Amino acid sequence: MLHIILGILKILGIIVLVLLGLLLLILLTTLFVPLRYQARVDFDGSPTAKAAVTWLCRLISVQIEYQKKLNFRVRVLRFYLIGGEKQKKTAKAHRHKKKAKASQIGKDKARAIEPKPEAVEDTPMDLKSEEKADESALKMTEDVKTEEVEIKKVKTEDVKTPETIRDPEKKSWVQRLRKLLDNGVTSVKNFGKSMKNLRDTVGHIRATIDTYRTFWNLPRTQAAYGHVKKELFYLLRHILPRKWKGNVHFGFEDPASTGQALALLSILEGCSGNHIQATADFDQKILEGDFYLKGHVRSCHFVKSGLSLLADKNVRRTVQRFRRTRGS
């Protein structure tokens, strides 16, 4: 009996260890396997662009293409979840073309076999139906005419109505003056209320600005800001592309404008570390070029920055104080 219980516990322990190993493998894969991205833009008359994001040896990929039309595809293990309709549409169109050709050939053969139809004379029944249609059309026109006559009669009756009766009770000039004074008093009161509301709004904005200014100048806030800025630069260093280069070949109608643009692009070329090459054409108007970039991102860097910010006491206290300041 004891041996059976120990055997069951051994099997359960092996299953638990296997599950823990799988969870650990998934966690390490998610943290340390990079998410790779690359993009290319070509401009030669009409711009074309391609971008792709892949993960886990291209088992999961997202592709974006632009060539007079935007295409978006998501693929997992050779199966298209989004955007695989293009291949399906081409296959369906090919099958429909084959079916259309076969049906057209059958129709042509049937037409060749069928005799030509002879001209059919009009029967008296058709003549009677035509006469009935003419009579119904005449009745419709007569009904429309009678309706128009009735509408004209109604309009003439409306026109013949008597003139508007003047109001016999004319307001005196005293009443008019009193009404003008009342309107002036109400407008002055409304203007005073609006000015008071404006002063209150301006005072509230000033108080809010002063509160946030004092909050920003606190030593704890400045320490938290320095730590956040440090982590942001750390993430940018690991997110930005590792390889990037570009070529630009341009020219304007005016050689002077071409020279000025070349001078600006030369400065940009120096700042980019010679990753961007610019060539000018002083003889013709032209604009063409390409740009390429490639890099990768690991989620472990985000986890490291997040844990570092959570462990910082200044960041936690600053967030709490900001919530209280915003609530008040």
Any overview of this molecule?
It is built from 8 helices and 8 strands, in the order αβββββααααβαββαα. Helix 5 packs across helix 8. It is an alpha+beta fold. It has an 8-stranded mixed beta sheet, with helices on one face. Helix 6 (255-271) links the parallel strand 6 and strand 7 (276-280). The radius of gyration is 42 Å and the shape is extended.
Descriptive terms for the model:
8-stranded mixed beta sheet, 328 residues, 63% helix, alpha+beta, extended, 8 strands
List strands and helices in order, with pairings.
Blueprint: H1 2-32, E1 35-44, E2 46-55, E3 60-66, E4 70-76, E5 79-82, H2 85-113, H3 124-159, H4 173-216, H5 219-239, E6 243-251, H6 255-271, E7 276-280, E8 286-297, H7 299-311, H8 313-327
Helix pairs in contact: 5-7, 5-8
Low-pLDDT windows of residues:
116-128, 157-170
**Average pLDDT for all residues:** 81
Gyration radius, to the nearest Å? 42 Å
Q: Given the structure, what is the number of helices?
A: 8
Question: How is the main sheet built?
Answer: 8 strands, mixed
Estimated structural class: alpha+beta
Which percent bin holds the helix content? 55-70%
Strand content: 15-25%
> Which strand order spans the largest sheet, edge to edge or round the barrel?
5-4-3-2-1-8-6-7
C-alpha end-to-end distance? 69 Å
H/E topology pattern: HEEEEEHHHHEHEEHH
Label the overall shape.
extended
Q: What is the number of beta strands?
A: 8
